[in-house]
Design goal:
This protein has about 450 residues and is of the alpha/beta class. It contains 21 helices and eight strands. It has an eight-stranded mixed beta sheet, with helices on both faces. The chain is flat, with a radius of gyration of 26 Å. The two termini are about 45 Å apart.
Length: about 450
């Protein structure tokens, strides 16, 4: 995501490197390169031009402090303007609903944009993170497979789905779903509607009729970020008919140049509320313009990384784990549980890109999301006693484990050795007296 744009912008700053001050000449040269980078990323031409004109105006009006280099000041100005371009503030979902009067969310978009899948993801997020009780409404009466897809997704995320097989009137299905939600105490109804391969009058009229009938609190337009400027044009046409309240960008984890994310807010004047970041059902994140600007400029996104970690790591469990580490009782079962929590946070390369500097370092490195599979297989091939007592793993036990996991003995030996080293290091980190002793040794070693 945004890798190409990040690289181009980084090259742009080199024009200012070594310059003593910002001048109209070096700013013009730098911003000419920035504008090219934005256009290559499929940003709307008018948006790119307005953006660079604003940055130029602000840069020439700044006095460069002696402690700040022109290059650093330009990065700061571009960062702030990028965040503003994408909306400035984080746009929250409007959730006024209560039992008896549910919040109604209407999902719109073209076929293939990920609308039905995103309906399921949104339902899961509201259930797990907002403690809501959503109901999914299958109102795509044109494509029976869409109803079945939503039913499967509902089962997967543990959310009920209202559907009427053989129904031909999506407006009536939506109204019946809302009645169902009121009777079953569901406080959110997510209405999945029909999509088309291209914008047509029938699609627009149908979704307009649904909107007028159910009067939704939120209308979310789901758009595929990989379609670039087409995504922006489609968003504009849908907005003229629906006047939607927000945008969901899907497939931001793919090979996308990011132009839609940077253009859509300015062109349609509607906030991006969520982004899809993967195929898993929990791969949906609120859109934070400032954090996205950080990532575009290679600054990472530590805040989002910490938030993901906090969602997966239970405070009480962390205390219990710390107590086990202090007693040197950390075992393979604990190790396995930690791996599962890390996997829930997202794909490894995406997580690495949130750490400042790491994303750039790993740009050409392939990080396999199945990297944990052999480790999991080895641990799963151990008996419960062996997991809790790693010291009992003698040669015969290791040979049995490698056969059960389908790996060679060297991999088993390597994992056990790494585990022992990790356990010793964790014990040392929690033992304050040893840490102080280690610090003293390091201090005493300096000459």
């Amino acid at each position: 995501m945004f890798e190409s744009l990040s690289e181009r912008l980084e090259r742009s700053w080199k024009i200012l490197k070594g310059e003593g001050k910002i001048t109209e000449i070096n700013v013009a040269e730098t911003l000419k390169d920035v504008r090219r980078a934005l256009l290559d990323a499929d940003v709307n031409y008018k948006v790119a031009k307005t953006f660079t004109d604003t940055v130029k105006q602000k840069a020439l009006g700044q006095n460069v402090l002696t402690a700040v280099k022109p290059q650093q000041l330009m990065v700061k100005i571009v960062h702030d303007e990028l965040a503003q371009l994408m909306g400035g503030e984080t746009a929250e979902l409007n959730l006024p609903g209560r039992i008896g009067e549910p919040t109604i969310i209407l999902m719109a978009g073209l076929n293939g944009s990920g609308k039905t899948t995103m309906s399921g993801k949104l339902a899961k997020m509201l259930k797990d993170k907002k403690q809501k009780h959503p109901l999914l409404a299958a109102c795509d009466t044109f494509r029976p497979a869409a109803m079945e897809q939503l039913r499967v997704l509902g089962e997967q995320v543990g959310v009920p789905v209202y559907m009427e097989e053989g129904a031909t009137d999506p407006v009536q299905v939506a109204l019946n779903a809302i009645r169902e939600a009121k009777s079953k105490a569901n406080d959110v109804v997510i209405v999945d509607t029909a999509g088309r391969l291209a914008i047509d009058e029938e699609l627009m009229q149908q979704i307009s009729d649904i909107k007028n009938a159910i009067n939704p609190h939120e209308i979310l337009f789901v758009v595929d970020a990989m379609t670039g400027q087409d995504a922006v044009n489609t968003a504009k046409e849908f907005n003229e008919r629906l006047d939607y309240t927000g945008v969901i960008l899907t497939k931001l984890d793919g090979d996308t140049r990011g132009g839609a994310a940077l253009s859509i807010r300015t062109v349609v004047d509607k906030p991006i509320k969520f982004v899809g970041t993967g195929e898993k059902m929990d791969a949906i994140d609120p859109f934070h313009p400032a954090r996205m600007a950080d990532r575009i400029l290679g600054m990472g996104d530590i805040v989002s990384l910490v938030e993901r970690a906090q969602e997966q790591f239970n405070e009480e469990e962390a205390r219990k784990l710390e107590a086990k580490i202090r007693k040197n009782k950390f075992d393979f079962s604990d190790f396995y549980n930690q791996i599962q929590q890390i996997k829930k946070m997202g794909n490894l390369k995406d997580l690495a890109s949130m750490i400042p500097g790491v994303g750039k370092a790993l740009k050409d490195v392939e990080i396999d999301d199945n990297a944990f599979k052999s480790i999991e297989a080895i641990i799963q091939s151990m008996t419960p006693y062996e997991r809790e007592h790693p010291e009992c793993l003698n040669t015969s036990r290791r040979q049995r484990i490698c056969k059960g996991a389908g790996v060679d003995i060297q991999q088993v030996n390597r994992l056990i050795k790494q585990f022992d080293q990790t356990r010793k290091m964790m014990k040392m980190m929690t033992d304050k007296s040893k840490m102080a002793q280690l610090a003293g040794m390091m201090k005493g070693g300096k000459r």
